[in-house]
Amino acid sequence: MASTEIARQAGEGARAVPLSGHVGFDSMPDQLVNKSVNHGFCFNILCVGETGLGKSTLMDTLFNTKFEGEPTQHNQPGVQLKSNTYELQESNVRLKLTVVNTVGFGDQINKEDSYKSIVEFIDAQFEAYLQEELKIKRTLHSYHDTRIHACLYFIAPTGHSLKSLDLVTMKKLDSKVNIIPIIAKSDAISKSELTKFKIKITSELVSNGVQIYQFPTDDETVAEINSTMNGHLPFAVVGSTEEVKIGNKMVKARQYPWGTVQVENENHCDFVKLREMLIRVNMEDLREQTHTRHYELYRRCKLEEMGFKDTDPDSKPFSLQETYEAKRNEFMSELQKKEEEMRQMFVQRVKEKEAELKEAEKELHEKFDRLKKLHQDEKKKLEDKKKALDDELNMFKQKKTAAELLQNQAQQAGGSTTLKRDKERKN
Amino acid sequence: LALRNLEGYVGFANLPNQVYRKSVKRGFEFTLMVVGESGLGKSTLINSLFLTDLYSKDYPGPSQRIKKTVQVEQSKVLVKEGGVQLTLTIVDTPGFGDAVDNSNCWQPVINYIDSKCEDFLNAESRVNRRLMPDNRVHCCLYFIAPSGHGLKPLDIEFMKRLHDKVNVIPLIAKADTLTPEECQLFKKQIMKEIQEHKIKIYEFPDTEDDEDSKLIRKIKERMPLAVVGSNVVIEVNGRKVRGRQYPWGVAEVENGEHCDFTVLRNMLIRTHMQDLKDVTNNVHYENYRSKKLAAVTCNGVDTSKTKGQLTKSPLAQMEEERREHVMKMKKMETEMEQVFEMKVKEKKQKLKDSEAELERRHEQMKRNLEAQYKELEEKRRVFEEEKANWEAQQRILEQQKLDATMEKNKKKGKIF
């Protein structure tokens, strides 16, 4: 149940008055608790870590139950998030627990984008809550809160240092979720190595500016234990759902030829510390931090991104209506402008294309005009030649006619001469 | 989701304790409004409820001051008990119902309640949200004058206007002026009228616990609660009690047979204070908020669409509108593009056809010309041939002539 009472200074502007008897409002915490219990609680854990680090087993061990799922293979193409929700009950407390597992984390050759799907998932839960919160008709009271309250980051028990993938991922997540780093399968590390490992990890986190979740020390009731536990981070855990008989009790343990690692033995590992901190002492604080810090940050960034802002504190407090209305008007005019721009662009294109085509048409006509002219010239030449030939023909005809005439005359004359001669001869 | 069996103690049963711890650290706040004509003992009741002198010499209550119009005044006090801190705001409405013409005397009250909701809405809607104090009115105690007859028109009017803005708990004031029988009848009459006018007074939430439901049923039977308040402590049979001393006896405030004060106190403070806050937050405030926001975002949008939009957040709505617009633009763009392409194609085709036509004509003319050339050449060839032949002929003739002349000359020459 998302609490509507955000922490504030009690009694601002109020004067203290003494009571002359028992009024009874000291039952308020009980009233609040009863309502919460009736409503039920929800808690969402995200487990980030490479395949095979025992994430599912640890969840089973923490909650004393066998959750669904088969062991994942290493051949996942990308990082996926698988989420499962369970209804648990202990005495009169009902808990809706969601466990989200990263599948395929660290399995790819190129792990550059590994953190992306995790960040997207976390943001998506914030977004869903934000959308609900911004609805006009909303039902926050019965909203199933899916925001991640705790992120258990599983560190591989190499004994040396954090992998660069770990640093990169945690750095991307530390402003979005409460990170609790744990050393997984810590039964692979000896006690002395473990101390060195923890120191190395802590110093690497500090030097890289990674903000991990600190158990709160502001409440006197739990300040001491929380501050001690902060010094034990990261918790070195071992998970097991198998039971082994130790003495006359059945305990959760892992059995090796050289001995048995007891999960709930604080000398063997920090499992008990993790359970204590995560579930028994600080579960509510984890939920509160998620809501008041991480979610608020997401919300603020999202709204600023969309252009919302508060007026300065001196001027009149911002009216929600005005914001929305102004936003909307701005938005609508922006859309209009875009539309207009596109239209203009098209008009321009049309103009340009028209000019282009006109140009092409002009060229075509010019080309053909040229050809026509050439043709005209050719025709003229032909005509000239024709004329020349005709002239020649005529001249020839004349010559021929003249020659024939001469010939005829000559013949006639010749004929008459011959006739004359013949005549003379005869004579 | 089926409930899973846990094989062993996990520890989240400790969660309520964590919640308890944090709530104590945070402290609590509650705003109680009292409405009724002057002289009905409102301030006295508050003092009796909270066992304190809220209004003292230094902070005189509104009843000590003469009011001409309805005011809405708040007093904030901090009280502590059993480690629990409560910031209590009492809102008084002096002048209510005291004028001759009381039309709209509820308006300042409504305005006050709305303005507190508005403040909360604004604080909730800021980008940078910080500590949000909850100053909304969580409960309104409405004091009914003990006439013994029924509700006055003003009572009905007020409750009808306020019942969907705030938790209204009607009380019969100065109940020590009614005998138990008169009180019973009065209560019955009031409840009847409340039902007739469909007034929704604060209802107790259902509970699964049998004992609790029994208790609640008992309370419901005694509604509206008839109360008596007192600032004075009197000794009765060796006990020190708050009460009102009469010649005929002491009306004890906390005596269940004398009045319902204890019932009210237990319900208001000890068992249902949190529920009053929750109902204010989840019902009354949400009503205010959704009405306010619906008015904003439905500005300029036709009402046929608004029904579906109420379930969307304004941001989501804008996102959707943006997406719709992007699609519209895309569609427009493709359409324009299509028309453009088509027109260009047409034009290009025309140009092509025109070019082809011109080309064809040009070809034809060229061929025509070529044909003429050929013709001309042929003609010339023929002519040349003819000419050559004729010239050849002429040459022969010439030669013949020459020969003939030569012979003639020879003959002539011979003779001589």
From TrEMBL, chain A:
Domain of life: Eukaryota
Keyword Nucleotide-binding: yes
PROSITE patterns noted in UniProt: G_SEPTIN (PS51719)
GO molecular function terms listed in the Swiss-Prot or TrEMBL record: GTP binding
Keywords: Coiled coil, GTP-binding, Nucleotide-binding
InterPro entries cross-referenced by the UniProt entry: G_SEPTIN_dom, P-loop_NTPase, Septin
Region (Disordered): 405-427
Coiled-coil region list: 321-399
TM segment ranges: none
Family note: Belongs to the TRAFAC class TrmE-Era-EngA-EngB-Septin-like GTPase superfamily. Septin GTPase family.
Protein name as it appears in the record: Septin
TrEMBL record, chain B:
Family annotation (InterPro entries): G_SEPTIN_dom, P-loop_NTPase, Septin, Septin7
One Gene Ontology biological process: cell division
Location, primary (coarse class): nucleus
CDD domains, sorted: CDC_Septin
A molecular function GO annotation: GTP binding
Domain Septin-type G: 26-295
Compartmental location: Chromosome, Centromere, Kinetochore; Cleavage furrow; Cytoplasm, Cytoskeleton, Cilium axoneme; Cytoplasm, Cytoskeleton, Spindle
Superkingdom in the source lineage: Eukaryota
Keyword Cell cycle on entry: yes
Pfam families for the chain: Septin
Segments forming a coiled coil: 315-400
Keywords: Cell cycle, Cell division, Cell projection, Centromere, Chromosome, Cilium, Coiled coil, Cytoplasm, Cytoskeleton, GTP-binding, Kinetochore, Mitosis, Nucleotide-binding
GO cellular component terms given for this protein: axoneme; cleavage furrow; kinetochore; midbody; septin complex; spindle
Family the UniProt entry places it in: Belongs to the TRAFAC class TrmE-Era-EngA-EngB-Septin-like GTPase superfamily. Septin GTPase family.
Entry protein name: Septin
